[in-house]
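Suppose you are handed only two things: the residues of a chain and a line of SMILES describing zinc ion. What would the bound structure be? This form records exactly that question and the answer produced for it, so the two can be stored side by side and reused later without any lookup.

QUESTION INPUTS
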Amino acid sequence: MQISALEYLRCPECREHLSMQDMTKRKCDIRSGTMECTGCSHKYPVIMGRPALLPDGAVNIWQAPLDEALGVPPGTPVNGALSVNRLKEIGIERAIEILRNRSTNSELIESDPNMVTKVLLGRARYRISGEWFKHCGRNERLLDFPAKGGGNYYIFREFMNTVQGTQPEYLIDLLSGGGYGVTHQAFGNRELRRIAAVERDLNCLWSMQYRFKHIGLNSISESIGGDVRRLPIASESFDTAMTLQGLVELYGIRGFIKEAYRVLRQGGYYVAHYSEDPVTYDILSLSDLRKFALAADLYAGHEQFIEAAEENGFGVISTRVFEGTKAKKRITVFRKM
Ligand SMILES: [Zn+2]
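ANSWER OUTPUT
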């Protein structure tokens, strides 16, 4: 993590500045240390070079959003694709009742930071060494720039061009996953001067950073551990935000949109690539899934998403639909008005 990232990193709890303590570094690159909030004194670690700025109660591993909404304990195996089976078994009406009865306290699932750090350190070393990429065809899939193809490749290209067309110098990628979208944007768009990628699954951070390094952009790019519903990012600090396909994997769509809006400068763009409809996997009817998704604040479909974005102050600049190989995809450009 570059020292300069402290210019825009903030405490996810109170959004105050962070001060670095007990730091080890190589030149401007912070390898380990603690970031302490100058406002509320919360502490966040830098683990093997990566800042982990998860708010209290955030789960640091990915959970199916349905499970998260229903309060299923982390670590419970996903039931079917994105746990849609679980929803079917519970039944829509009963599931909506569970949502209503969940107290706000049950949102706060405490993670054990010591346990987390220990497990992560092993994985981090493995990924930083590049060893992880040597298996399961990851070298070919993840380190081949520019991407040569794959399912829905032309839609991906369109998305890349659309992001580039907003002419950002400062770009933030949200719901980054392994960083496929953001590393390709970084590779193809040499106008970028600052790149941040926020992902809650901390395992992804080291492999994503490895990819930034692989394309020679380590010094301007940061993979950051964070929750997109409470971004550890200063307000109005980026020109363009992007998400590639993450929305269906998110619980808390409205909070996310608010945060995306907040971190953009006035007039900044948010470019989203997403599925037209929530994915039913043919397990539930679309109307049942949509009904639950709306009640639970999960991704409920294109129209509902646009509506939520407009309610939060975004204007729609353009929206285009594409016939994907499995389902319709959308690329929408929003502007912070
Ligand atoms: Zn704070």
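WHAT STANDS OUT: The CA atoms of residues 59 and 111 lie 7 Å apart. Residues 105-110 have pLDDT under 50 and may be disordered.
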